[in-house]
Design a protein that fits this description.
CATH superfamily of the largest domain: ATP-grasp fold, B domain
Helix content: 25-40%
Low-confidence stretches: 2-6
CATH class of the largest domain: Alpha Beta
Number of strands: 13
Distance between the termini: 35 Å
Number of helices: 11
Radius of gyration: 19 Å
Structural class: alpha+beta
CATH topology of the largest domain: D-amino Acid Aminotransferase, Chain A, domain 1
Strand content: 15-25%
Largest sheet: 5 strands, antiparallel
Mean pLDDT: 91
Order of helices and strands: EEHEHEHHHHEEEHEEEHEHEEHH
């Protein structure tokens, strides 16, 4: 764990956490660096920028922060374990509480929960080792609890399904098989219960993979894309339904595929990327909210939520 300390002042001391032990560690560091940079442009914040692995409550308490912005992605940092530690500190923090974080990280449980409230989602199965998958190809095989398209495979033949299982079953505890839907890739951010402008993603690669998300500069992003009647309204409605069904707080981003039948929910991210390529900052900017204001607003809400909880 490393930190860039600033002298203690009357400003609000913000602990920006990044890194973590998960596959998305490098993305988290990029996100955290951008959050810290944005907050340092605001004089009301005293920013500590800290790269962590699996921090303990004692280690985090030593920073004496007024509020914590945990910009970690993946099962530990985004999926509940870190949130349990943050709850034990009694310090306000940005993002979901532990139960919602764990639910959103579990793609199988998430899809069941949102489907129950009327959000369409492709058929899926958790893969049981040694048992056949009762979904027809083409299908997607991906980790049941991870993000950034890490270890995602699109399988168009039975041979490709077998190969993907051989590659992934030895390195992943849980895998998800999902019916592949060919269509337009769309994402919808939501901040403090307000749905942000819709973004359509046009990757130059075959699909929106890790490189297209974070490393390449030829991915196109279309803000407020044109859809057939009713699709944009459905996307906004489904995003709000998913937000409420999961119990999200502060910010999230829901991903969809849109085909001729409508919009299909794929997953929801409770600590979406905050890099220069990331989509929640792009959507916020479209309605006049720049990165410093976005991050400051999230911190203010975290402190308000904590105060309201104490008063109850």
């Amino acid at each position: 764990m490393t930190a860039k300390f600033l002298p203690r002042s009357s400003a609000c001391r913000v602990l920006v956490l990044m890194g973590g032990p998960d596959a998305e560690r490098e993305v988290s560091i990029m996100s955290g660096t951008e959050v810290a940079k944005a907050l340092r442009s605001r004089p009301e914040f005293d920013v500590l920028e800290v790269t962590v692995d699996r921090p303990t409550a004692i280690e985090l308490a030593a920073y004496d922060a007024d509020v914590i912005f945990p910009v970690l992605h993946g099962p530990f940092g985004e999926g509940g374990p870190l949130q349990v530690i943050l709850e034990s500190l009694g310090v306000p923090y940005v993002g979901c509480e532990p139960i919602a974080a764990a639910l959103a990280m579990d793609k199988v449980a998430t899809k069941a929960r949102v489907s129950a409230v009327g959000v369409p989602t492709p058929r899926c199965r958790e893969i049981i080792r040694g048992e056949p998958i009762d979904l027809e190809v083409p299908l997607v095989i991906k980790p049941a609890a991870d993000g950034s398209s890490v270890d995602l495979r699109i399988c168009r033949t039975a041979e490709e399904v077998l190969q993907a299982r051989q590659e992934l079953e030895g390195k992943r505890d849980r895998l998800l098989a999902e019916s592949f839907i060919k269509g337009r890739e769309v994402t919808v951010g939501i901040v403090q219960g307000k749905v942000l402008p819709i973004i359509e993603i046009l990757p130059a690669t075959a699909y929106y993979d890790y490189e297209a998300k974070y490393l390449r500069d030829d991915t196109q992003y279309i803000l407020n894309p044109v859809f057939p009647p009713g699709i944009a309204e459905a996307l906004r409605k489904y995003t709000m339904l998913a937000w409420e069904a999961i119990g999200c707080r502060d910010l999230a981003r829901a991903d969809y595929i849109v085909d001729e039948r409508g919009a299909w929910f794929l997953e929801i991210n409770t600590m979406p990327g905050m890099t220069t390529h990331s989509l929640v900052p792009k959507a916020a900017r479209e309605i006049g909210i720049e990165m410093p204001e976005l991050c400051a607003t999230l911190l203010e809400r975290a402190r308000f939520n904590a105060s309201a909880s104490i008063s109850r």
